[in-house]
Amino acid sequence: MATIAVLGAGKIGEALLSGLLHAGRKPEELLFTERHPERSAELTGRYGIAGVDVSEAAKRADVLIVAVKPQDIEPVLDELAPLVGPGSLVVSLCAGLPTALYERRLPEGTPVVRVMPNTPMLVNEAMSAVSPGRHATPEHIRVVEELLSSVGKVLEVPESQQDAVTALSGSGPAYFFFLVEAMIDAGILLGLPRAVAEQLIVQSAVGAAKMLAESAEHPVILREAVTSPAGTTINAIRELEKHGVRAALLAAIEAARDRSVELGKAHEED
């Protein structure tokens, strides 16, 4: 079995390690890097996985999963460059960073796969989009898909679509949380206790998501099924349209896409 190292054990990195363990990987097949000793000790105690430095991870691992913040990528690449071996596969979970950046900084021919996951990885319900770099083969993609399927669903897309994916599903959970937050506040405004409003809305969100996933119906059809003539729902929809909620959401997702593009350009060569 391949040895897998997760470089950066934040929430996403920890969620991936946990998912791999639940999928049957043994602790000795996994490694992680973490800058803070207290956090490293906590994770080793929780999962039995060894915390190492970047150089040790590069020497021992067959698959290097880079899960640091985009602004922290430069020192990581500086450390990896002289250490990555010819058989290593590099997987980037960093928003906005193109495979070309890794290919430029790492040894010639290094296979790189770009991934945009999202935070439902924490509950094994991630949506991860994967894109191969110039040197990544179908077998490399298969390996990455197998790893990520332990924490949710996986979809292969062209790398040219990754900034859009980042805006839509990478940031997507935040839009849903924002909407739920607003709906809970509305419940309080209407006189419901916060705990009651939260339970009503969260379960409604869970049920609606399950209907979307399992019914095979278009969202418009599902919405229309709730929208009776001259009823309460159509009055609410009218207000949402009047206040430009649809247009605001489109603009927000475009802004997220633009920021993803900027993150990649920040690491382009002069």
Describe the protein's architecture and organization.
- The protein has 270 residues and is an alpha/beta fold.
- It has two domains: 154 residues, NAD(P)-binding Rossmann-like Domain (Rossmann fold), CATH 3.40.50; 90 residues, ProC C-terminal domain-like fold (Orthogonal Bundle).
- Helix content is 54%, strand content 13%.
- The protein has twelve helices and eight strands.
- It has an eight-stranded mixed beta sheet with strand order 3-2-1-4-5-6-7-8, sandwiched between helices.
- β1, α1 and β2 form a beta-alpha-beta unit.
- α7 crosses α12 and α8 packs across α9.
- The longest helix is centred in the last third of the chain and has 22 residues.
- It is elongated, with a radius of gyration of 21 Å.
- The model has no long low-confidence stretch (mean pLDDT 95).
Query: Can you give the helix content as a percent range?
Result: 40-55%
Strand content: 5-15%
> What's the order of the H and E elements?
EHEHEHEHEHEEHEHHHHHH
CATH topology of the largest domain: Rossmann fold
What structural class do helix, strand and pairing data support? alpha/beta
Overall number of strands: 8
Helical segment tally? 12
CATH class of the largest domain: Alpha Beta
Mean pLDDT: 95
Stretches where pLDDT falls below 50 for ≥5 residues? Answer: none
Strand order of the largest sheet: 3-2-1-4-5-6-7-8
Main β sheet profile: 8 strands, mixed
CATH superfamily of the largest domain: NAD(P)-binding Rossmann-like Domain
Structurally, the number of domains stands at 2
From the N-terminal CA to the C-terminal CA, the straight-line distance is 41 Å
Shape descriptor reads: elongated
Q: Please give the radius of gyration in angstroms.
A: 21 Å
CATH architecture of the largest domain: 3-Layer(aba) Sandwich
Pfam families: F420_oxidored, P5CR_dimer
GO biological process, one term: L-proline biosynthetic process
InterPro entries: 6-PGluconate_DH-like_C_sf, NAD(P)-bd_dom_sf, P5C_Rdtase_cat_N, P5CR-like_CS, P5CR_dimer, Pyrroline-COOH_reductase
Organism: Prauserella flavalba
